[in-house]
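stage 2 :: seqdesign
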Protein backbone atom coordinates (compact mmCIF):
# COMPACT_ATOMS: atom_id res chain seq x y z
CA UNK A 1 0.00 0.00 0.00
CA UNK A 2 1.76 3.16 -1.07
CA UNK A 3 -0.06 6.28 0.10
CA UNK A 4 1.37 9.70 -0.66
CA UNK A 5 3.24 11.31 2.25
CA UNK A 6 0.56 13.93 3.06
CA UNK A 7 -2.16 11.30 2.82
CA UNK A 8 -0.23 9.06 5.22
CA UNK A 9 0.23 11.92 7.66
CA UNK A 10 -3.50 12.66 7.57
CA UNK A 11 -4.33 9.04 8.30
CA UNK A 12 -1.89 8.77 11.18
CA UNK A 13 -3.49 11.73 12.95
CA UNK A 14 -5.86 9.19 14.43
CA UNK A 15 -3.61 6.13 14.34
CA UNK A 16 -0.10 5.42 15.60
CA UNK A 17 2.66 4.75 13.05
CA UNK A 18 3.42 1.14 12.27
CA UNK A 19 7.05 1.05 13.28
CA UNK A 20 6.50 1.14 17.03
CA UNK A 21 6.47 -2.09 19.03
CA UNK A 22 3.32 -4.16 19.03
CA UNK A 23 2.99 -4.04 22.81
CA UNK A 24 3.36 -0.26 22.91
CA UNK A 25 0.92 0.06 20.05
CA UNK A 26 -1.62 -2.13 21.84
CA UNK A 27 -1.36 -0.08 25.03
CA UNK A 28 -1.59 3.14 23.07
CA UNK A 29 -4.62 1.94 21.17
CA UNK A 30 -6.42 1.24 24.39
CA UNK A 31 -5.80 4.69 25.81
CA UNK A 32 -6.72 6.84 22.82
CA UNK A 33 -9.80 4.98 21.62
CA UNK A 34 -12.32 2.89 23.48
CA UNK A 35 -13.36 1.02 20.35
CA UNK A 36 -10.68 -0.06 17.87
CA UNK A 37 -11.13 0.92 14.25
CA UNK A 38 -12.75 -1.96 12.38
CA UNK A 39 -11.20 -3.63 9.37
CA UNK A 40 -14.02 -2.34 7.18
CA UNK A 41 -13.51 1.24 8.36
CA UNK A 42 -9.78 1.03 7.75
CA UNK A 43 -10.26 -0.59 4.34
CA UNK A 44 -12.72 2.12 3.29
CA UNK A 45 -10.06 4.74 4.12
CA UNK A 46 -7.49 2.95 1.99
CA UNK A 47 -9.57 2.61 -1.19
CA UNK A 48 -9.15 6.18 -2.52
CA UNK A 49 -5.42 6.08 -1.74
CA UNK A 50 -5.00 2.87 -3.67
CA UNK A 51 -7.00 4.25 -6.58
CA UNK A 52 -4.51 7.13 -6.70
CA UNK A 53 -1.60 4.72 -6.42
CA UNK A 54 -2.82 2.52 -9.29
CA UNK A 55 -3.60 5.58 -11.41
CA UNK A 56 -0.07 6.88 -10.89
CA UNK A 57 1.52 3.49 -11.71
CA UNK A 58 -0.53 3.14 -14.88
CA UNK A 59 0.19 6.72 -15.95
CA UNK A 60 3.93 6.30 -15.52
CA UNK A 61 4.44 2.66 -16.45
CA UNK A 62 1.28 1.57 -18.24
CA UNK A 63 2.88 1.43 -21.68
CA UNK A 64 6.01 -0.46 -20.60
CA UNK A 65 6.48 -4.16 -21.45
CA UNK A 66 7.65 -6.96 -19.15
CA UNK A 67 9.19 -8.76 -22.11
CA UNK A 68 8.15 -11.13 -24.86
CA UNK A 69 5.75 -14.05 -24.50
CA UNK A 70 7.19 -17.21 -26.01
CA UNK A 71 5.32 -19.99 -27.76
CA UNK A 72 6.76 -22.33 -25.09
CA UNK A 73 4.97 -20.34 -22.41
CA UNK A 74 1.68 -20.76 -24.26
CA UNK A 75 2.24 -24.54 -24.34
CA UNK A 76 3.92 -24.65 -20.92
CA UNK A 77 1.18 -23.63 -18.50
CA UNK A 78 2.05 -19.91 -18.81
CA UNK A 79 4.97 -20.44 -16.41
CA UNK A 80 6.53 -17.10 -15.49
CA UNK A 81 4.11 -15.07 -17.61
CA UNK A 82 3.54 -11.74 -15.83
CA UNK A 83 -0.20 -11.42 -16.23
CA UNK A 84 -1.96 -10.81 -12.92
CA UNK A 85 -2.28 -8.17 -10.24
CA UNK A 86 -2.19 -9.64 -6.69
CA UNK A 87 -1.50 -7.38 -3.74
CA UNK A 88 -1.54 -9.70 -0.72
CA UNK A 89 1.69 -11.55 -1.39
CA UNK A 90 4.54 -11.93 -3.82
CA UNK A 91 6.62 -15.09 -4.28
CA UNK A 92 10.37 -15.02 -4.82
CA UNK A 93 11.80 -18.19 -6.36
CA UNK A 94 14.72 -18.29 -3.92
CA UNK A 95 13.35 -16.70 -0.78
CA UNK A 96 9.72 -17.87 -0.84
CA UNK A 97 6.59 -15.99 0.07
CA UNK A 98 6.25 -12.52 1.58
CA UNK A 99 2.87 -11.41 2.83
CA UNK A 100 2.64 -7.66 2.10
CA UNK A 101 6.43 -7.60 2.09
CA UNK A 102 6.83 -9.62 5.29
CA UNK A 103 8.49 -13.04 5.47
CA UNK A 104 6.96 -15.86 7.50
CA UNK A 105 9.41 -15.34 10.42
CA UNK A 106 8.60 -11.61 10.37
CA UNK A 107 4.87 -12.38 10.49
CA UNK A 108 5.51 -14.80 13.36
CA UNK A 109 7.23 -12.02 15.22
CA UNK A 110 4.99 -9.08 14.38
CA UNK A 111 1.42 -10.35 14.24
CA UNK A 112 -0.64 -10.45 17.45
CA UNK A 113 -0.78 -13.71 19.40
CA UNK A 114 -3.44 -15.29 21.59
CA UNK A 115 -2.89 -14.94 25.35
CA UNK A 116 -0.21 -17.51 26.21
CA UNK A 117 0.32 -18.39 22.55
CA UNK A 118 3.42 -17.95 20.44
CA UNK A 119 2.11 -18.43 16.89
CA UNK A 120 0.51 -15.56 14.93
CA UNK A 121 -3.26 -15.28 14.85
CA UNK A 122 -4.61 -15.69 11.28
CA UNK A 123 -6.98 -12.82 12.02
CA UNK A 124 -3.92 -10.54 12.04
CA UNK A 125 -2.68 -12.05 8.80
CA UNK A 126 -6.01 -11.30 7.12
CA UNK A 127 -5.81 -7.70 8.31
CA UNK A 128 -2.27 -7.52 6.94
CA UNK A 129 -3.26 -9.06 3.59
CA UNK A 130 -6.10 -6.61 3.16
CA UNK A 131 -4.52 -3.39 4.43
CA UNK A 132 -0.76 -3.92 4.31
CA UNK A 133 -0.70 -3.01 8.00
CA UNK A 134 -0.04 -4.92 11.22
CA UNK A 135 -3.16 -4.67 13.40
CA UNK A 136 -3.31 -4.10 17.13
CA UNK A 137 -4.24 -6.84 19.58
CA UNK A 138 -7.61 -5.14 20.07
CA UNK A 139 -8.32 -5.01 16.34
CA UNK A 140 -7.55 -8.70 16.04
CA UNK A 141 -9.76 -9.53 19.01
CA UNK A 142 -12.59 -7.56 17.42
CA UNK A 143 -12.10 -9.52 14.20
CA UNK A 144 -12.24 -12.84 16.09
CA UNK A 145 -15.50 -11.72 17.69
CA UNK A 146 -16.93 -10.54 14.35
CA UNK A 147 -16.14 -13.87 12.68
CA UNK A 148 -17.58 -15.81 15.64
CA UNK A 149 -20.81 -13.81 15.31
CA UNK A 150 -21.06 -14.67 11.59
CA UNK A 151 -20.14 -18.36 11.95
CA UNK A 152 -23.56 -20.05 11.89
CA UNK A 153 -24.54 -21.96 8.74
CA UNK A 154 -27.98 -21.77 7.11
CA UNK A 155 -29.78 -24.98 8.07
CA UNK A 156 -30.11 -26.06 4.42
CA UNK A 157 -26.29 -25.99 4.09
CA UNK A 158 -25.99 -28.20 7.17
CA UNK A 159 -28.52 -30.57 5.61
CA UNK A 160 -26.59 -30.55 2.32
CA UNK A 161 -23.40 -31.59 4.11
CA UNK A 162 -25.25 -34.24 6.12
CA UNK A 163 -26.77 -35.63 2.91
CA UNK A 164 -23.37 -36.20 1.28
CA UNK A 165 -22.42 -39.88 1.10
CA UNK A 166 -19.43 -40.78 3.27
CA UNK A 167 -17.72 -41.94 0.09
CA UNK A 168 -17.74 -38.38 -1.34
CA UNK A 169 -14.32 -36.77 -0.89
CA UNK A 170 -14.26 -34.11 1.87
CA UNK A 171 -13.06 -31.53 -0.67
CA UNK A 172 -16.11 -32.14 -2.86
CA UNK A 173 -18.35 -31.75 0.18
CA UNK A 174 -16.48 -28.57 1.10
CA UNK A 175 -16.91 -27.11 -2.37
CA UNK A 176 -20.64 -27.96 -2.44
CA UNK A 177 -21.21 -26.27 0.93
CA UNK A 178 -19.22 -23.13 0.03
CA UNK A 179 -20.96 -22.79 -3.32
CA UNK A 180 -24.36 -23.16 -1.63
CA UNK A 181 -23.60 -20.20 0.65
CA UNK A 182 -24.19 -18.09 -2.45
CA UNK A 183 -27.88 -18.45 -1.50
CA UNK A 184 -27.42 -15.55 0.96
CA UNK A 185 -24.80 -13.55 -0.93
CA UNK A 186 -24.94 -9.83 -0.18
CA UNK A 187 -23.10 -9.13 -3.45
CA UNK A 188 -25.49 -11.19 -5.61
CA UNK A 189 -28.45 -9.45 -3.99
CA UNK A 190 -26.93 -5.97 -4.30
CA UNK A 191 -26.16 -6.63 -7.98
CA UNK A 192 -29.75 -7.68 -8.62
CA UNK A 193 -30.87 -4.53 -6.80
CA UNK A 194 -28.77 -2.41 -9.16
CA UNK A 195 -25.88 -1.41 -6.90
CA UNK A 196 -23.47 1.15 -8.42
CA UNK A 197 -20.13 -0.40 -9.44
CA UNK A 198 -18.30 1.95 -7.08
CA UNK A 199 -20.04 0.19 -4.21
CA UNK A 200 -19.21 -3.39 -5.27
CA UNK A 201 -16.51 -3.72 -2.64
CA UNK A 202 -18.86 -3.34 0.27
CA UNK A 203 -21.13 -6.41 -0.25
CA UNK A 204 -17.99 -8.27 -1.42
CA UNK A 205 -16.38 -7.41 1.92
CA UNK A 206 -19.46 -8.63 3.80
CA UNK A 207 -19.61 -11.89 1.80
CA UNK A 208 -15.89 -12.45 2.29
CA UNK A 209 -16.17 -11.98 6.04
CA UNK A 210 -19.15 -14.37 6.11
CA UNK A 211 -17.26 -16.88 3.96
CA UNK A 212 -14.20 -16.97 6.23
CA UNK A 213 -16.37 -17.00 9.35
CA UNK A 214 -18.47 -19.97 8.23
CA UNK A 215 -15.60 -22.23 7.13
CA UNK A 216 -14.88 -23.70 10.60
CA UNK A 217 -18.49 -24.88 10.90
CA UNK A 218 -18.38 -26.38 7.40
CA UNK A 219 -15.02 -28.09 8.00
CA UNK A 220 -16.08 -29.24 11.47
CA UNK A 221 -19.33 -30.70 10.22
CA UNK A 222 -17.67 -32.58 7.35
CA UNK A 223 -15.02 -33.94 9.73
CA UNK A 224 -17.49 -35.07 12.38
CA UNK A 225 -19.81 -36.65 9.82
CA UNK A 226 -16.98 -38.64 8.27
CA UNK A 227 -14.57 -39.37 11.09
CA UNK A 228 -15.80 -38.08 14.42
CA UNK A 229 -18.68 -38.58 16.73
CA UNK A 230 -21.02 -36.52 18.83
CA UNK A 231 -22.63 -33.15 18.36
CA UNK A 232 -20.67 -30.19 17.06
CA UNK A 233 -19.84 -27.77 19.87
CA UNK A 234 -21.04 -24.17 19.63
CA UNK A 235 -18.65 -21.43 18.50
CA UNK A 236 -17.16 -19.67 21.54
CA UNK A 237 -17.50 -15.91 20.86
CA UNK A 238 -14.70 -15.12 23.33
CA UNK A 239 -12.12 -17.26 21.53
CA UNK A 240 -10.08 -16.88 18.37
CA UNK A 241 -10.78 -18.43 14.97
CA UNK A 242 -8.20 -21.22 15.24
CA UNK A 243 -9.39 -22.26 18.66
CA UNK A 244 -12.96 -22.51 17.37
CA UNK A 245 -11.87 -24.48 14.30
CA UNK A 246 -9.84 -26.86 16.47
CA UNK A 247 -12.71 -27.26 18.91
CA UNK A 248 -15.17 -28.09 16.13
CA UNK A 249 -12.76 -30.77 14.93
CA UNK A 250 -12.56 -32.18 18.46
CA UNK A 251 -9.09 -30.83 19.39
CA UNK A 252 -10.06 -27.73 21.37
CA UNK A 253 -8.51 -29.02 24.59
CA UNK A 254 -5.13 -29.56 22.94
CA UNK A 255 -3.29 -26.24 23.22
CA UNK A 256 -0.44 -27.37 20.94
CA UNK A 257 -2.89 -28.39 18.21
CA UNK A 258 -4.61 -24.99 18.47
CA UNK A 259 -1.19 -23.32 18.10
CA UNK A 260 -0.50 -25.53 15.08
CA UNK A 261 -3.78 -24.37 13.51
CA UNK A 262 -2.77 -20.72 14.05
CA UNK A 263 0.51 -21.31 12.25
CA UNK A 264 -1.06 -23.56 9.61
CA UNK A 265 -3.79 -21.10 8.62
CA UNK A 266 -1.32 -18.22 8.57
CA UNK A 267 1.23 -19.86 6.28
CA UNK A 268 -1.19 -21.58 3.85
CA UNK A 269 -3.30 -18.46 3.30
CA UNK A 270 -1.73 -16.90 0.23
CA UNK A 271 0.94 -17.69 -2.36
CA UNK A 272 0.66 -14.79 -4.79
CA UNK A 273 -1.91 -14.85 -7.58
CA UNK A 274 -0.82 -17.37 -10.17
CA UNK A 275 -1.32 -20.62 -8.25
CA UNK A 276 -4.34 -22.65 -9.33
CA UNK A 277 -6.65 -21.89 -6.39
CA UNK A 278 -5.85 -18.17 -6.18
CA UNK A 279 -6.01 -17.57 -9.91
CA UNK A 280 -9.25 -19.56 -10.23
CA UNK A 281 -10.89 -17.47 -7.51
CA UNK A 282 -9.78 -14.25 -9.16
CA UNK A 283 -10.86 -15.40 -12.62
CA UNK A 284 -14.33 -16.52 -11.52
CA UNK A 285 -14.70 -13.36 -9.41
CA UNK A 286 -13.88 -11.27 -12.47
CA UNK A 287 -17.21 -12.34 -13.97
CA UNK A 288 -18.77 -10.72 -10.87
CA UNK A 289 -19.62 -14.13 -9.49
CA UNK A 290 -19.90 -13.56 -5.73
CA UNK A 291 -17.15 -14.64 -3.28
CA UNK A 292 -18.91 -17.95 -2.47
CA UNK A 293 -19.04 -18.96 -6.14
CA UNK A 294 -15.51 -17.70 -6.74
CA UNK A 295 -14.01 -19.47 -3.75
CA UNK A 296 -16.00 -22.66 -4.45
CA UNK A 297 -14.17 -22.71 -7.78
CA UNK A 298 -10.84 -22.12 -5.99
CA UNK A 299 -11.51 -25.17 -3.85
CA UNK A 300 -12.08 -27.37 -6.89
CA UNK A 301 -8.61 -26.38 -8.10
CA UNK A 302 -7.06 -26.86 -4.68
CA UNK A 303 -8.49 -30.40 -4.69
CA UNK A 304 -6.10 -31.46 -7.49
CA UNK A 305 -3.13 -33.71 -6.56
CA UNK A 306 -0.55 -31.41 -8.14
CA UNK A 307 -1.84 -28.55 -5.95
CA UNK A 308 -3.47 -28.71 -2.48
CA UNK A 309 -4.31 -32.40 -2.51
CA UNK A 310 -0.56 -33.09 -2.41
CA UNK A 311 -0.68 -32.95 1.42
CA UNK A 312 -3.00 -35.99 1.36
CA UNK A 313 -0.83 -37.68 -1.26
CA UNK A 314 2.32 -37.21 0.86
CA UNK A 315 0.81 -39.12 3.75
CA UNK A 316 -0.49 -41.89 1.51
CA UNK A 317 2.97 -42.14 -0.06
CA UNK A 318 4.65 -42.23 3.37
CA UNK A 319 2.32 -44.95 4.61
CA UNK A 320 2.98 -47.06 1.54
CA UNK A 321 6.68 -46.56 2.10
CA UNK A 322 6.45 -47.70 5.73
CA UNK A 323 4.45 -50.76 4.65
CA UNK A 324 7.12 -51.61 2.14
CA UNK A 325 10.34 -50.77 4.00
CA UNK A 326 9.34 -50.75 7.68
CA UNK A 327 9.35 -48.02 10.33
CA UNK A 328 13.10 -47.41 10.64
CA UNK A 329 14.27 -47.89 7.08
CA UNK A 330 17.87 -47.58 5.93
CA UNK A 331 18.73 -44.73 3.55
CA UNK A 332 19.20 -47.31 0.80
CA UNK A 333 15.69 -48.71 1.29
CA UNK A 334 14.19 -45.21 1.20
CA UNK A 335 16.17 -44.33 -1.93
CA UNK A 336 14.91 -47.46 -3.65
CA UNK A 337 11.33 -46.56 -2.77
CA UNK A 338 11.77 -43.02 -4.15
CA UNK A 339 13.27 -44.36 -7.37
CA UNK A 340 10.42 -46.86 -7.72
CA UNK A 341 7.95 -43.95 -7.52
CA UNK A 342 9.75 -42.11 -10.33
CA UNK A 343 10.18 -45.23 -12.45
CA UNK A 344 6.45 -45.89 -12.07
CA UNK A 345 5.79 -42.57 -13.83
CA UNK A 346 4.54 -40.87 -10.67
CA UNK A 347 5.61 -37.68 -8.95
CA UNK A 348 7.21 -37.57 -5.50
CA UNK A 349 4.44 -35.71 -3.67
CA UNK A 350 5.48 -32.69 -1.61
CA UNK A 351 8.56 -32.02 -3.76
CA UNK A 352 9.04 -29.61 -6.63
CA UNK A 353 7.32 -26.32 -7.34
CA UNK A 354 6.24 -24.26 -10.32
CA UNK A 355 8.00 -21.13 -9.01
CA UNK A 356 10.14 -21.94 -5.96
CA UNK A 357 13.73 -23.05 -6.50
CA UNK A 358 14.69 -23.55 -2.83
CA UNK A 359 13.15 -25.24 0.20
CA UNK A 360 9.73 -23.68 0.79
CA UNK A 361 9.88 -21.44 3.90
CA UNK A 362 6.46 -22.86 4.81
CA UNK A 363 8.15 -26.27 5.01
CA UNK A 364 10.84 -24.75 7.23
CA UNK A 365 8.27 -23.10 9.53
CA UNK A 366 6.52 -26.43 10.00
CA UNK A 367 9.82 -28.24 10.54
CA UNK A 368 10.68 -25.73 13.27
CA UNK A 369 7.29 -26.30 14.87
CA UNK A 370 7.97 -30.05 14.82
CA UNK A 371 11.45 -29.61 16.30
CA UNK A 372 9.83 -27.69 19.16
CA UNK A 373 6.77 -29.86 19.76
CA UNK A 374 7.47 -33.38 18.43
CA UNK A 375 11.24 -33.79 17.95
CA UNK A 376 11.21 -37.55 18.58
CA UNK A 377 8.17 -38.48 16.51
CA UNK A 378 9.13 -41.38 14.20
CA UNK A 379 7.14 -40.00 11.24
CA UNK A 380 8.80 -36.58 11.64
CA UNK A 381 12.18 -38.34 11.63
CA UNK A 382 11.24 -40.18 8.45
CA UNK A 383 10.23 -36.88 6.82
CA UNK A 384 13.63 -35.47 7.82
CA UNK A 385 15.37 -38.53 6.35
CA UNK A 386 13.43 -38.12 3.09
CA UNK A 387 14.41 -34.43 2.98
CA UNK A 388 18.06 -35.52 2.89
CA UNK A 389 17.49 -38.06 0.09
CA UNK A 390 14.85 -36.80 -2.36
CA UNK A 391 16.60 -33.68 -3.75
CA UNK A 392 19.66 -35.62 -4.99
CA UNK A 393 17.43 -38.24 -6.57
CA UNK A 394 15.25 -35.68 -8.33
CA UNK A 395 18.40 -33.94 -9.58
CA UNK A 396 19.79 -37.26 -10.79
CA UNK A 397 16.49 -38.06 -12.52
CA UNK A 398 17.08 -34.77 -14.34
CA UNK A 399 13.56 -33.51 -14.91
CA UNK A 400 12.25 -31.48 -11.99
CA UNK A 401 13.42 -27.86 -12.03
CA UNK A 402 13.10 -27.68 -8.26
CA UNK A 403 14.16 -30.73 -6.23
CA UNK A 404 13.29 -29.17 -2.85
CA UNK A 405 10.26 -29.78 -0.60
CA UNK A 406 7.15 -27.61 -0.69
CA UNK A 407 4.63 -26.88 2.06
CA UNK A 408 2.74 -30.15 1.54
CA UNK A 409 5.73 -32.34 2.40
CA UNK A 410 5.35 -31.47 6.07
CA UNK A 411 1.82 -30.52 7.05
CA UNK A 412 0.30 -34.00 7.27
CA UNK A 413 2.97 -35.27 9.64
CA UNK A 414 2.11 -32.57 12.18
CA UNK A 415 -1.63 -33.26 11.92
CA UNK A 416 -1.07 -37.02 12.24
CA UNK A 417 1.00 -36.51 15.40
CA UNK A 418 -1.94 -34.84 17.13
CA UNK A 419 -4.35 -37.59 16.06
CA UNK A 420 -5.85 -35.97 12.96
CA UNK A 421 -4.73 -38.88 10.83
CA UNK A 422 -7.55 -38.93 8.28
CA UNK A 423 -5.47 -37.64 5.38
CA UNK A 424 -8.43 -37.23 3.03
CA UNK A 425 -9.38 -34.30 5.24
CA UNK A 426 -6.07 -32.46 5.04
CA UNK A 427 -6.83 -30.36 1.99
CA UNK A 428 -9.99 -29.04 3.68
CA UNK A 429 -7.74 -27.34 6.24
CA UNK A 430 -5.62 -25.94 3.42
CA UNK A 431 -8.86 -24.63 1.87
CA UNK A 432 -9.95 -22.91 5.09
CA UNK A 433 -6.65 -21.07 5.04
CA UNK A 434 -6.58 -20.28 1.31
CA UNK A 435 -9.92 -18.44 1.70
CA UNK A 436 -8.01 -15.68 3.51
CA UNK A 437 -5.81 -14.84 0.53
CA UNK A 438 -8.46 -15.28 -2.14
CA UNK A 439 -11.03 -13.23 -0.20
CA UNK A 440 -8.60 -10.35 0.43
CA UNK A 441 -7.85 -10.09 -3.29
CA UNK A 442 -11.52 -10.38 -4.28
CA UNK A 443 -12.32 -7.40 -2.06
CA UNK A 444 -9.53 -5.35 -3.62
CA UNK A 445 -10.51 -6.45 -7.12
CA UNK A 446 -14.03 -5.14 -6.62
CA UNK A 447 -12.76 -1.97 -4.89
CA UNK A 448 -10.42 -1.23 -7.80
CA UNK A 449 -12.96 -2.14 -10.50
CA UNK A 450 -10.84 -5.02 -11.82
CA UNK A 451 -12.01 -6.00 -15.30
CA UNK A 452 -13.31 -9.31 -16.62
CA UNK A 453 -10.37 -11.64 -17.28
CA UNK A 454 -10.19 -12.74 -20.89
CA UNK A 455 -6.72 -13.63 -22.19
CA UNK A 456 -6.20 -14.54 -25.85
CA UNK A 457 -5.86 -18.18 -26.88
CA UNK A 458 -4.59 -19.70 -30.14
CA UNK A 459 -4.86 -23.05 -31.86
CA UNK A 460 -1.67 -24.99 -32.73
CA UNK A 461 -2.60 -24.53 -36.38
CA UNK A 462 -2.75 -20.78 -35.94
CA UNK A 463 0.57 -20.67 -34.08
CA UNK A 464 2.26 -22.69 -36.82
CA UNK A 465 1.06 -20.27 -39.48
CA UNK A 466 1.82 -17.20 -37.39
CA UNK A 467 5.47 -18.14 -36.83
CA UNK A 468 6.11 -19.99 -40.12
CA UNK A 469 8.29 -17.26 -41.57
CA UNK A 470 9.82 -15.89 -38.36
CA UNK A 471 13.19 -17.04 -37.05
C1 LIG B 1 0.53 -26.06 -2.43
C2 LIG B 1 1.10 -26.50 -3.72
O1 LIG B 1 0.43 -26.52 -4.70
S1 LIG B 1 2.74 -26.92 -3.73
C3 LIG B 1 2.85 -28.19 -4.99
C4 LIG B 1 2.20 -29.46 -4.54
N1 LIG B 1 2.35 -30.54 -5.54
C5 LIG B 1 3.22 -31.54 -5.36
O2 LIG B 1 3.94 -31.62 -4.38
C6 LIG B 1 3.21 -32.62 -6.44
C7 LIG B 1 4.64 -32.99 -6.85
N2 LIG B 1 5.25 -31.92 -7.59
C8 LIG B 1 4.94 -31.70 -8.92
O3 LIG B 1 4.19 -32.44 -9.54
C9 LIG B 1 5.55 -30.50 -9.61
O4 LIG B 1 6.78 -30.18 -9.02
C10 LIG B 1 4.62 -29.27 -9.59
C11 LIG B 1 3.25 -29.61 -10.17
C12 LIG B 1 4.42 -28.76 -8.17
C13 LIG B 1 5.26 -28.16 -10.42
O5 LIG B 1 5.19 -28.55 -11.76
P1 LIG B 1 6.11 -27.89 -12.88
O6 LIG B 1 6.17 -26.43 -12.71
O7 LIG B 1 5.63 -28.40 -14.19
O8 LIG B 1 7.53 -28.51 -12.51
P2 LIG B 1 8.82 -28.70 -13.44
O9 LIG B 1 8.91 -27.63 -14.47
O10 LIG B 1 9.95 -28.87 -12.51
O11 LIG B 1 8.49 -30.08 -14.19
C14 LIG B 1 9.38 -30.63 -15.12
C15 LIG B 1 9.25 -32.15 -15.08
O12 LIG B 1 9.68 -32.62 -13.79
C16 LIG B 1 8.67 -33.39 -13.22
N3 LIG B 1 8.62 -33.18 -11.78
C17 LIG B 1 8.49 -32.02 -11.12
N4 LIG B 1 8.37 -32.25 -9.78
C18 LIG B 1 8.45 -33.59 -9.63
C19 LIG B 1 8.34 -34.44 -8.51
N5 LIG B 1 8.13 -33.98 -7.29
N6 LIG B 1 8.45 -35.77 -8.72
C20 LIG B 1 8.65 -36.27 -9.97
N7 LIG B 1 8.71 -35.52 -11.07
C21 LIG B 1 8.61 -34.19 -10.89
C22 LIG B 1 7.39 -32.88 -13.84
O13 LIG B 1 6.34 -33.83 -13.69
C23 LIG B 1 7.82 -32.64 -15.26
O14 LIG B 1 7.84 -33.88 -15.90
P3 LIG B 1 7.43 -34.01 -17.48
O15 LIG B 1 8.45 -33.20 -18.22
O16 LIG B 1 7.48 -35.47 -17.73
O17 LIG B 1 6.05 -33.44 -17.61
O1 LIG C 1 2.35 -21.32 -5.72
C1 LIG C 1 1.91 -22.35 -6.24
O2 LIG C 1 1.87 -22.55 -7.48
C2 LIG C 1 1.45 -23.47 -5.41
C3 LIG C 1 1.57 -23.22 -3.94
O3 LIG C 1 2.59 -23.45 -3.34
C4 LIG C 1 0.41 -22.62 -3.27
O4 LIG C 1 -0.56 -22.26 -3.93
O5 LIG C 1 0.44 -22.49 -2.04
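stage 2 :: out
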Amino acid sequence: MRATAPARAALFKTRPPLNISRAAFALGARSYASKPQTLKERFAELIPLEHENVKAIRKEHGHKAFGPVTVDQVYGGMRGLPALLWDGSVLDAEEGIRFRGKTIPECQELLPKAPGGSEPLPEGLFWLLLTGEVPTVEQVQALSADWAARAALPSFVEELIDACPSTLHPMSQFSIAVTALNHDSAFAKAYQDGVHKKEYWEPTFEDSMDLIAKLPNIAGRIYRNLFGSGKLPAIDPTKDYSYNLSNLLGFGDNQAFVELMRLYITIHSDHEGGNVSAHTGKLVGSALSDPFLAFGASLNGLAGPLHGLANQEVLIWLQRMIKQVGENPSDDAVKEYIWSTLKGGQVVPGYGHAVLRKTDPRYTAQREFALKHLPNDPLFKLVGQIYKLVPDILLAAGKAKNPWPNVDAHSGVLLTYYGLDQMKFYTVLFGVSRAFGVAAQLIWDRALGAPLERPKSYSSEHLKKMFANRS
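stage 3 :: structure notes
- Residues 320 and 337 are 9 Å apart (CA to CA).
- DSSP finds 22 helices and two strands in the chain.
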